[in-house]
Amino acid sequence: MAQMAGQEWFDELFSRINIEEIIGEVVPLTRKGQRLWACCPFHSEKTPSFSVDPTTGLYYCFGCHKGGNALTFLKDYEHIDGREALEELAKRARMELPKMAPRTPQDDKDAALKEEIFKANVAAARFYHDTLWTDEGASALKYLYSRGLKDSDIKHFGLGCAPSSGKALYEKLKSEGFSDEALVKGWLCGEKDGRFYDMFRDRVMFPIINSRDKVVGFGGRVMGKGEPKYLNTSDTPVFSKRNGVYGLNFAKGVGRLDALVLVEGYMDTVMLLKQGIRGVVATLGTALTQEQIRLMKRFVKKVVISYDGDAAGQKAALRALDMFEPSGMDVSVIDYPEGKDPDEYIKAYGREAWEKLPRYKPAKYRMIRAEDGLDITTQDGLTEYTIRCCGILKGVTNAVEYENYLRELSLKTGYSREVLARQAGMAPSQQTEPVPRPRPQPAETLPTELEKAQMQLFALASGGKIPEGVIRREDFDDELLASVYEEERAGLTLSDIIQTLDEGQIERVMRSLNSLPGELTTEDALKLANELLETIRKQRVSDRINELTGRLATASGNEKDRITRELNDLLLRL
């Protein structure tokens, strides 16, 4: 990304931005000393390894090694480019963007391509919708009517029809001036041997609109018995199936939501929304991803899994529960009776009946599914069911919920509460939240005593905890730490310096910043600095002694005498 504004403007921007607020909107932060900790929003984990330092305005994850400042966080989390992230920060800080410096030719080319794809998607959505009302779209319109949709519903959701002819969309968009590159890279059209064709043919079309209200892709349901049943836009410069959900634009537009309702398909989304159910979204032709979970978590803290009631849907719901578990979200599951899907159920029984369906907590739903494939009227079936349920209860950390499930299981199986508690491995006195175990550190990455001392010394200096002159550049063997230390002394802020470093360098700096044993007073910090300097001095002397001892074995004459004298001097300094 090219230099975009003067340093004074950036200094003012970052002085107004509170990184704690920005990251706190995504994950709950817990303060430990001067830093804040959370489970990382960039990867799945149960033990917090994501650190935020409000003083420096930096963050770092010791699990996936992502780190940076508020600008890099927005870029990585929102999947937007640097300019968009900068615009968002400026908006938060209520600052006017300065005149942008010239971008590179490649920057301009990439931005122009994305903008053209966005416009082509809008034009395609309009074409598909218009086609629905023609003879070419008659079968698609009949299908939508058969599902219970009215003209007003079809228009509200922007549904359409991809004609069966091979290149109708291509010819339409070309006539409007769109380039072959945009149509192919936007996955609207394909190309083979110089011949172009439409990617979607003879399908009911659902436009996919992102959280910024841009048409980013399409889902198409085949008419008749063709395969695949659903075809989705592949990854493009403006779209990633892993990072979005269908229906989010409608969820955003209804005011404050308590929860999102997660369904499996486009039509389930449309039908539930049509019935007045708020906040219905669906995955985009992929299994549920952590990226989609993080996206949903930006808008709500609760999710209701509303998958089909058949065996496949039930298995998918169990997988979804496992995926949601590290997120800390409040998740529940609807178990549709008679194998119905959400669309079938709400059409058969109505919204009021749907709202009365139980929302099962994860452990309860897993216990319901534990009976699948078993005949619990037999002793073997009952035993296996009980063992499965006790295994599920091992994961319940809430004491009250655990007690409720245990009583319920005792009534159903006839086993005493004490027997079940022993099988579950959780006696009543142990019904407390487990203490998180620290993330094990790979042996090869553990710093030596000398490296650890220098890392802590760097953290003390960078945090302004010790007076000028206590530390010198020569106290660092690590050239990166020495360089950053010198740049900070010259007046640059750590937030500025971090933008010039690569990912590996950021990791090393952040590891050092997080190496202190906790909150320190000025007196304690100075005392620790002197101890660290003494450790560094002694370690360097010890290393030199080891080196000279090795050389002494092969030395002779004057060289041997010189080494011996130096060794004696060094030994006196230890």
Key structural traits:
DNA Primase, Chain A; 574 residues; alpha+beta; 15 strands
Q: Short summary of the structure?
A:
The protein is 49% helix and 11% strand.
Topology (SSEs and partners):
Elements: H1 7-16, H2 19-24, E1 30-32, E2 35-38, E3 50-53, E4 58-61, E5 67-68, H3 70-78, H4 82-93, H5 105-132, H6 138-146, H7 151-157, E6 160-162, H8 168-175, H9 180-185, E7 189-192, E8 195-198, E9 203-209, E10 215-222, E11 230-232, H10 248-252, E12 259-263, H11 266-274, E13 280-282, H12 290-297, E14 302-305, H13 311-324, E15 330-333, H14 342-356, H15 362-369, H16 379-393, H17 399-413, H18 417-424, H19 449-462, H20 479-489, H21 494-498, H22 503-513, H23 522-552, H24 557-573
Parallel strand pairs: 12-13, 12-14, 14-15
Antiparallel strand pairs: 1-2, 2-3, 3-4, 4-5, 6-9, 7-8, 9-10, 10-11
Helix pairs in contact: 3-4, 11-14, 16-17, 16-18, 19-20, 19-22, 19-23, 23-24
Please characterize this protein's 3D structure.
This protein has 574 residues and is α+β, with helices and mostly antiparallel strands. It folds into 5 domains: 7-93, Zinc finger, CHC2-typedomain (DNA Primase, Chain A, Alpha-Beta Complex); 106-239, DNA primase DNAg catalytic core, N-terminal domain; 240-360, Dna Topoisomerase Vi A Subunit, Chain: A, domain 2 (3-Layer(aba) Sandwich), CATH 3.40.1360.10; 362-435; 443-573, DNAb Helicase, Chain A (Orthogonal Bundle). It has helices at residues 7-16, 19-24, 70-78, 82-93, 105-132, 138-146, 151-157, 168-175, 180-185, 248-252, 266-274, 290-297, 311-324, 342-356, 362-369, 379-393, 399-413, 417-424, 449-462, 479-489, 494-498, 503-513, 522-552, 557-573, and strands at 30-32, 35-38, 50-53, 58-61, 67-68, 160-162, 189-192, 195-198, 203-209, 215-222, 230-232, 259-263, 280-282, 302-305, 330-333. A hairpin with a 5-residue loop joins β9 and β10 (215-222). The chain starts with 6 loop residues before the first helix and ends with a helix.
